[in-house]
Predict the 3D structure of the following.
Amino acid sequence: MRNVIKPFASHSLFSHHFNSLRTLSSNNKPNPPSLYQNITNIIFSPEDGFPSSEDGSEGVRQIAPKSSRSSNAKRTHVEASDSEDVDRAFDSSQGVRQIGPKSSCFLNSKPTVSETSSKDVSPIVQRITEIVRLETARIGMERRLDELGLSCGPDVVEMVLKRCFKVGHLALRFFNWVKLKPEYCHTTETYNAMIYIAGEAQEFYLVEKLIAEMDDELCPKDIETWTILISHYGKAGRIGKALLTFEAMRKSGCEPDRGAYKAILRALCYVRKPELATEFYQEMASKNMVVDVGLYQMLMSCFARSDNKQAVLSLRNDMIKCGQVSENDAYSLALKCFCSFGKLKDAQEVFKEMKRKSLVGSDAYDILLKGLCREGKVDEAIEMIEYMKNESSVSSRTYGFLIHGFLSKGDIGKAIDVLHRVREIGCLPTISSYTEIIQHLFSSNQYETACELYEEMLENSIRPDIVVTTAMVAGHVHHGQVSKAWLPNPSKPSSFLKEMSDLDINATDGIFGLVINSLTGNGYFEKAEEAEKIRRSFKVDNLENEPISQPVDHLSPEEHEISSCPVARVKDFSDDDVREVCRILSSSEEWNSTREQLARRMISFTPNMVDAILRRCQRHSRAALQFFSWIGKQTNYAHTTETYNMAIKLAGSAKDFKHMRYLYQEMKRKGLSAAANTWTIMIAQYGQAGLTELALKTFKEMKSEGYSPDGSTFKYLIVFLCGQKGRKIEEAMKIFQEMNQAGYMPDKETVGIYLSSLCESGKLVDARRTIISLCKRGFETQLAYSMLIKSLCRAGRLEEALLSTSELAKLGCRMDRYVYGSIIHAMLRGSRIDEALNKVEEMKMVGVPLTTQIQTSLVVHFCKEKEIEKAVETFKTMRETGCEPTVITYSALIRGFMNAGMVSDAWDIFRRMKLKGPLPDFETYSMFMTCLCKGGKSEDALLLIREMLDSGIIPSAVNFRTVFHGLNREGKTELAQSVLQTKWLLKRERMFLN
């Protein structure tokens, strides 16, 4: 049996993070366990390493076991910096260290690496890695591994996983494959490797699943596990989870080491929490742990950014006391931090103190000079250079800062003058100075001058690097001189395409278009035709962009959220740059300030990067659309159809349909061809808002302009025409017929929604005709009739559904679990509980396993009838039979508790969802909000609106209206007004303003 963990105690560091977590009331007299406590014992039993009801509950997920479960394996700390090297990917800077001896496990009773330390396993690891990484068809990997017949101990598995961390979805398949082998068990080290891979991909649902699996398998977590979790939560900006994990580590008896402290400090600095960072730093120092220079610099930067001068100076003094660096280096580091964040007054005070201590060297001058130029204080920089001539030598690097300062002010002429002055004094200008000036010349349409400056650079024997070469290529292309970009051989691009194809490097449509246009313009028609053939045959194999956890697509006609049409993209940007831009867009309300910050960053934007930024800024779509407008006017950048599509979607999702249409017209004016996807996005945005008339009008407009609808266009139009809001069943039937005539086979989601709409509208004959027609075209018969029965049940046509089940055998179909599920759910909705339970028994007799759907239906029914004890018992049965509760299951329990007046228990279940999963979705929030308002708890419902926004879920107008009316009914008019203000601010954040 595992040790039971006590719930989190309140900690001074985290007190304000736990204010919102409701705790069960307690007094001196023992109370019988509540229904919530009974459920807690079912979900988080002591065997699973979670607190029992006797220990109390704070609604906080316990991730850790006690100290008896900490790993005893010896750890070898390996410092590494090259994240591209697979073996070095698990470096201490990210809180992950290489681990030494592992436990010995066996696969097929063959000797493993653990048994024979002298045996070189690298050939085995290499062979397995090749099979895993070369799996391109998503089938066959497991079979080939079985045929290989090699033994795989945990050491081998760990090494293979580390070599596959860039193809995480394949690593997961290998991880799951080896887990099923007889007598094999994963170790802490193999789990750590897989958790690291999932964390790098920011697939935190998978991370949580792996952690739960470790608990189920009695696999201990060690300091590496905790540090990986803290590090990745921190890098994703999920500081609450990082803090909870750190506290859980303490409670487990696992003492934080230097790597764990470094991970939490990195996370706190990333989200700008200097106060908390101070406490952790002081705690770390009190334990006499070594603080390296990198950590000092990170903390200094955090404090400098937050205008905490004294904290920066205090850290500087600590560095000197501990002897990590010299006094000169410590002062220089403080100076650099102040300059980096524009705190020039503080920087100049540090500089003066350095002069008094005779610590000023050329590096200190350069740091301050660079800071002055970055902030546009060029005059002060010139004065400093004049002073430097007397005090120390002035290098070409020094003048490079001055050149950057003039360029940031837009004064290219003075920048060129400084460049020539450098040559006059006998110095050779740096290549970065040439590059900056060339880029600005191209941006200001001084094409000839830029080319002349490049030639001058070559004459001075300065060898071009990749940056200046890229700048020249971009400049030639932007000014219509594509052939010059390929000098000396304009036909060279075709050979590059072949080389890319041979190396399996993805070429985008934009690259192909550029090459073909260049070849055609220079008269290489045969090579252009050859490039077009490569384009048609080229297979984009973008394994590294695959999600790790692939969705299971079973035959159940489940409903899925409708998403926008995905576009395959090649990554040509830095995630750090994207995060920084998104931070700027979300943190500033004034566009002028935002624009200045963006300009200072000197980021090289690409269409793919812009697309990624827009995708992450749905809540702040106003700033994102202003950014889209601004970047489109930059001379070295041009929007693509894909970036316009994303901007159109962003405007539409904010219901800013006027600007959505403006973007489409602007796109046409710029000569970009609107694909079917563009029209589909506009149709979907109208449909999502219930404006089906406008969606239909746009569909007709699309065809009148000569665009042919594709399968996605038909799908989304049908889905929204069949929706409850704005339903137009006759039009949906016409579009469905048109889709079939165009040769498109509807997917199961479309068919399910369409059939449900027909049945709810009483068009049962049409529903049956649709099924017959689809089956003739190749749609699977079993699936088709399963969906028909489900649609009849949803429409309340239980008798017709039962009649249809009697016809299944004649059609060669069977009563599967999905058919049973639909029938049982309909019976429960009709309060025919005895018949439903008889069907459940019938399933057991014929050997059809109970599904999560069926047991959730029972939970929903019992909660609706306020039979909470039976709901809890059914929930317990789900766990015992291996059926994992879903969001709907937990939501039903919350609704049941609320209807029974058990508000605190409902809150505890909700908090458990947020911390353990599955995460609450929009429907859960909306339902809970409505229940709270009905129960006179509208102030709590207001908190849910804020939580929704923090979770990235946009509340609907109905959500705001529900809470507003609830607060008014309770006489809380001021809070009600704050709801309207929040709604207005949210709308303002999302609507485009010129």
Observations:
- The CA atoms of residues 806 and 815 lie 9 Å apart.
- Residues 481-540 form one domain.
